[in-house]
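Quick one, tokens below. Sequence please?
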């Protein structure tokens, strides 16, 4: 059942991508020399429909490969996370959240810019999210101090008791 739903969702994503791809290609000035700038409504609809269906069908056909990659990645990630202590996972998640907050604050002024406003915020989120995880894990000794600043002495005492019971 999950397999069929996943294939359907990937096919729908392919339809959406196909529509956006046709829209982008028709707006390029290179293709405007081949295609008249003012197409009749029916012709435009047929071009959009054909492009959307072609890319959607391609994604639906290739979806088993995507599903296999996703399952392999999920198994790899689960194996890695099972070997990691819970405090490192929490510290990494905290660093990720801080990195994403900073990335969104930095990328907000870039949204109105034509092409840069769509690409740079995505790259900034990926980079600063990863950087937040790496820095928080490398500086994990300093993280309890930050937790005290945000959440107070109670949480810090709880973390200290938690570490003492684990034998760290």
């Amino acid at each position: 059942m999950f397999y069929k739903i996943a294939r359907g969702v990937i096919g729908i994503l392919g339809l959406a991508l196909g529509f956006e791809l046709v829209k982008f290609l028709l707006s390029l000035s290179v293709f405007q020399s081949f295609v008249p700038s003012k197409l009749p409504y029916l012709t435009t609809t047929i071009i959009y429909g054909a492009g959307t269906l072609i890319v959607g069908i391609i994604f639906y056909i290739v979806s088993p490969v995507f599903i296999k990659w996703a399952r392999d990645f999920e198994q790899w990630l689960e194996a890695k996370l099972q070997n990691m202590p819970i405090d490192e996972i929490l510290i990494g998640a905290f660093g990720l959240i801080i990195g994403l907050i900073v990335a969104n604050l930095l990328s907000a002024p870039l949204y109105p810019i034509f092409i840069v406003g769509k690409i740079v915020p995505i790259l900034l989120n990926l980079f600063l999210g990863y950087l937040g995880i790496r820095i928080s894990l490398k500086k994990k000794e300093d993280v309890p101090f930050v937790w005290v600043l945000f959440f107070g002495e109670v949480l810090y005492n709880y973390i200290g008791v938690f570490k003492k019971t684990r034998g760290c």
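The chain has seven helices and no strands. The chain has a mean pLDDT of 82.
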